[in-house]
Target: Acetyltransferase
Amino acid sequence: MMGSKFFFLLLRFAGSGLPPSHMRGIGIVGRRVRGFLARRVSPHIGRGVNIERGAYVFPDTVLGDGSGIGANCEICRGLVVGKNVMMEPECLFYSNNHKFDRSKNALRATRKSVRLRWRTMSGRGTG
Model:
């Protein structure tokens, strides 16, 4: 677990400084290094994935083959992404729901996973 935290921090900070994958010539280096780091954070990262600059994964993130997380996306724990799913830059995925029990006057957070199915595309500000 300690190793995955180290690689998570490397992905968050060093991965953000690497060239974007679309940059001609050296972009492939950034893509491969971020993919390598993501696989050290989560064992559930598929083949041929693209983790862009500013994006990250958690230890419980599932990312299917050929999928990508766009630049500066904010994801939640427990995110499940199918095969060939594309996330555009700056997508936001949150999974906490809140239940309010009036009798106890308490607010409880519950977590449900977010699932993106096979061959979908999501983007910020699209409807």
Summary: Residues 2-17 form the longest helix (16 residues). DSSP finds two helices and nine strands in the chain.
